[in-house]
Design a protein that fits this description.
Helix content is 34%, strand content 30%. It is built from 12 helices and 17 strands. The strands form 2 sheets. Strands 9, 10, 11, 12, 13, 14, 15, 16 and 17 form a 9-stranded mixed beta sheet that branches. The protein has an 8-stranded mixed beta sheet with strand order 2-3-1-4-8-7-5-6. Strand 5, helix 4 and strand 6 form a beta-alpha-beta unit. Helix 1 crosses helix 7, helix 3 crosses helix 4 and helix 8 packs parallel to helix 9. 38% of the residues are buried.
Length: 363
């Protein structure tokens, strides 16, 4: 059995939950805030393509010794390009020069790729087409075998034809993580009742889902979603899928869909009006009450269309204003109606006023 290192993205708890959902049989032998080491047999590239919250995957190669790296590199043709990523407190830059020197002794031309940071990013590795080695605590060495395809995510984020920055856009990586958390099966029906510009729908299509539904109360959102479905289907040569997208109010969801007709709901509802950061308690109470009504009504409609045991992965926001956190009242009663899987997983950059909290619910 082999061991693999998964370098986690910014939201490590979310990335770990996603890995566990995608690889439920794998055994975690080590876990830190930066990486996991899993024991099992996996296809690195296929797994990387599936995940949204993992930056790199590498195979554990042994101890951190120049001879080990030389042995792994010497069979490469032409000029050898390699680099080191230190996931340790200190970076010993001499190690790379020692490897380069030993390769030269064997008649191999080599270039050591470096960075200002202790670790090489997916961008640096991809653009330099270099072999990355991870240096981990306990003198463990791993050979990077797959990195996140940042260019592909960027195209789906900024290159799609339909978007509306004013209403906020769900990042494709986050949409993919939410889909993975839902553990939707290929033959199941996935619904996004707040589809926006269709990020959840298009990410699910790229991931191989065949039966998708999308609704939004806004006509432009529906038009954008349809444009983006057509665009992603052509770009990735996707065929033989069913994707119904219509304009519809979430409160009328059960009038559009049959009872027990949906397997999985993955969605980001409206997160509230833009915040300046100076809102007082009264203003925040108004926003919270309006959103609470929306979310309670939505969850009630979800109950009507979901199959028994159906799953929901949705974002319920909280807000950070002047050092104080504001939450929707419904989160205190949500366990009365739903089985809640674990604690909510947060997704937010430092200093953001709106915090996306990802809830996993079972009907």
């Amino acid at each position: 059995m082999s061991s693999y290192v998964f370098i986690l993205g910014r939201e490590s708890d979310l990335a770990i939950a996603e890995i566990k959902a995608v690889l439920p049989e794998a055994k975690i032998s080590q876990q830190t805030g930066d990486y996991l080491i899993l024991d099992g047999d996996i296809d690195c590239q296929e797994t990387m393509n599936r995940l949204g919250g993992t930056i790199k995957i590498g195979a554990v190669a042994g101890k951190v010794e120049p001879d080990v790296m030389v042995e792994l590199l010497k069979s490469k043709e032409g000029k050898i390009k390699f680099g080191l990523s230190f996931y340790t407190k200190k970076a010993d830059r001499r190690l790379g020069m020692e490897v380069k020197s030993r390769l030269k002794e064997q008649g191999k031309s080599a270039r050591l790729v470096t960075s200002k940071e202790k670790t090489l990013s997916a961008v640096v590795i991809t653009k330099n087409k270099c072999q990355d080695f991870m240096v981990l605590p306990d003198n463990t060495l791993a050979q990077t075998c797959a990195v996140q395809d940042f260019e592909d995510y960027s195209k789906r984020d900024y290159g799609r034809p339909g978007s509306d920055p004013k209403s906020g856009m769900l990042p494709p990586k986050l949409a993919k993580m939410m889909i993975n958390l839902s553990q939707v099966k290929p033959n199941e029906t996935l619904l996004d009742p707040f589809c926006g510009s269709g990020t959840v729908i298009t990410e699910a299509l790229v991931m191989g889902q065949k039966d998708l539904l999308g609704f939004d109360v806004n006509k432009k959102a529906v038009d954008d979603t349809l444009k983006n479905i057509e665009w992603v289907a052509e770009k990735y040569n996707l065929k033989e899928f069913k994707c119904g997208v219509e304009q519809n109010d979430v409160f009328k969801l059960s009038s559009k869909l049959k009872k027990n007709s949906v397997d999985v709901i993955v969605t980001e509802p409206f997160l509230g009006p833009p915040l300046r950061g100076g809102e007082n308690d009264a203003q925040m109470a108004k926003t919270l009450n309006e959103l609470d009504d929306l979310y309670r009504g939505s969850l009630a409609e979800f109950k009507k269309v979901l199959k028994p045991g159906g799953r929901v992965v949705m974002i319920i926001p909280s807000f950070s204003i002047k050092g104080r956190t504001y939450e929707l009242p419904l989160i205190n009663q949500i366990e009365n109606d739903w089985k809640v899987e674990g604690k909510p997983l947060s997704y937010a950059r430092e200093g953001q006023k709106v915090i996306r909290n990802i809830w996993q619910l079972t009907n």
